[in-house]
Task: structure prediction
Amino acid sequence: MADFLLELRCEEIPARMQAGARAELEKLFRRELEAAGVKHDNLRIWSTPRRLALIAYDLPAATEAVSEEAKGPPEGAPDAAIDGFCKKAGVTRDQLELRDVKGRMTYFAVVATPGRPMAEVLAAAIPAIIRDFSWPKSMRWGAASITTDSLRWVRPLSGIVALLDGAVLDVEVGGIRSGRETMGHRFHHSGSIAIESAHTYEGQLLNARVIVKHTKREALIRQGAEEVAAAAGLKLVADEGLVIENAGLTENPVPLLGRFDEAFLDVPPEVIQLTARVNQKYFVCEDSQGKLANAFVCTANIAPLDPAVVVDGNRKVLAARLSDARFFWEQDQKTPLAVHAEKLSRITFHEKLGTVADKVERVAKLARWLVESDIVTPAKAGASGGSDHTPKVPASAGMTKEKLADMAEQAARLCKADLVTEMVGEFPELQGLMGGYYAAKEGLPQEVAEAIRDHYKPVGQGDDVPTAPVTVAVSLADKLDTLMCFFAINEKPTGSKDPFALRRAALAVIRLVLENGLRFSVDATFETMTDVIAMGRRDDEGQARRDELDALLLNEIASGSAGLHWFILDRLKVQQRDAGVRHDLIDAVVTKDDDLVRLLARVHALQAFVTTEDGANLLAGYKRAANILKKEGYEGPAGTPDPEVLSSLKEGNDTIPDTGEEDPLAMVDDPDVGDILAAEARDNPSLSYTPEPAEQALIDALDSAAPRAAQAVREERFADAMAALATLRAPIDRFFEEVTVNAEEADKRAARLALLARFRDAVHRVADFSRIEG
Result:
């Protein structure tokens, strides 16, 4: 067994590229070994700003000999065919073997590949790895760079260390010859280092003040930054991304605490943190009250003789950055948000959807409509979040519907105004947040300021969901408009591509609805939105937009899952799958309901029911009944009985309304129609014989359970509806055990099929059991 070290040394590798470079090095090294027939897992791969290192332990001394055979033409084949086979296999004709294959002699070529020394395999692999290495950005350098065949690397490659059990592998790539010489820390060590072997590599570099393990540098930064903050009575604001980035910028990290002028604390804390983080790679700290302190932690790449000198230099650079931020903060406040908003007409939202000002107009109308249509109401209020620059009082205290509508529209008209401010121009990550600060400084109502601040939320799966009613109205309107308009111009997500983040918008809508208990029909809401969105435009433009959005809805109905309504429901299935809810149970309820809150309550009750013994057996009984009815022509989820059976139910009674549908029971979910049909079936059974005991037991059970289940569904007592269905389990099992459905007598057969259809329809009024797996 042998140990192998490969170090590729160059000028500074960007910190953001180092993780990908480590993965790329491992991938290419494994590729070369596997091509030689070697599988190996004992690898260590490290990086510093100036090197990539790989150590492979316990490599075999040589690859194994391999014997491969190939079947050729039969004996007696034309010479050209035999010669072509020999050329392809790399053998001569006298090396071929004749073997009997199903009674016919056939040529075979046996090619034996001897094992290769590992040194030879690695010497061939290193140039291939370097030349095939993929960087996000790379460069050529030196005189050779005048040709496109020259070596490319992220920064000029300056050295290669390649040692197998301490012996140098002689490799040359792009004019750079391998050896055992490397370099230590740029400032703490002078001269080169002769690496003895893979086992001494880490220790020798450590003596030269280079910590080659990136994970060890990360731990030192994480721990050291916390310690210097704690020594000053402060708490470090954790930032794992910043830990990794600083580890990628240093070979010998030393965290140091510095202070900046307290006057800068007048700037919003998020601005200070972002300025320190993005521009200077500094950590920030909080005081004992959890407020941002005038302190930062920088990471030096040296152990300074006088840390105060290093800290002071970093303080001056940070002060310049904070001065810029304070200038933006003060300048932006000189212009009211309403005036900033006027500039949105210069920004294109989408070439087919107009400007950002057009979007704001749509969102404002939708936000007001969501309140006026009672989708978002003052009663939906949650606790207000507040901030350091806004009072922490309940945002919905004493709010009327009219006042809520006015505030929602006002917040919506200003929610995108900060996009044209200097601060957001410098830090796009602060959009929304800065608008909230500016609104509070301007003296706008707290509810409006918070709605502007939080209307982008929830952005990701772990993001907070707004609960203040004004914020909910604006956030929901913004996302519904995005979904509706991009679907209207046929910019739908395809495969893994979702350039306008419509899947994320749909998930945000679902979270807003579920966590705030908003009650509305998804389909009906989108249909009404077509008119709301088209309002306020010139007649010709308004009509064109109305026609586009109406066409969308028509397409939605015609194309099923391709429409926006089904897109939302499909996202719901994805979200709930992560929460442990079965997708087939959602399918079973979706056809009955598109009120997301009620739908999920129904699904949870159904999932609890089907996991019980009664639920599993009732599902089996349902599927047996459905199969019999399907075989006998009772098609459709609601059940389409034989015309003679339906006639016997309606004969002499004109109280059943004419639905106008091809399926006479297409409106079986309508409470009025369902009750009438159930009453007709019960009061006028038209039986010409005495039912068997098991048959009568099922009739009696349906008489009791079906109305109770239907009533429970109407009152949204879904657990009670499932309990009512559970009482049908024993009667349906007994029915199938004791009753012959396809009796020879036509009247018995028709009546029993009608009874099974009634059983199926009673179940369907709770959920579509045909969509449940199992």
Summary: Residues 381-395, 556-562, 636-669, 671-685 have pLDDT under 50 and may be disordered. The radius of gyration is 37 Å. Residues 218 and 247 are 5 Å apart (CA to CA).
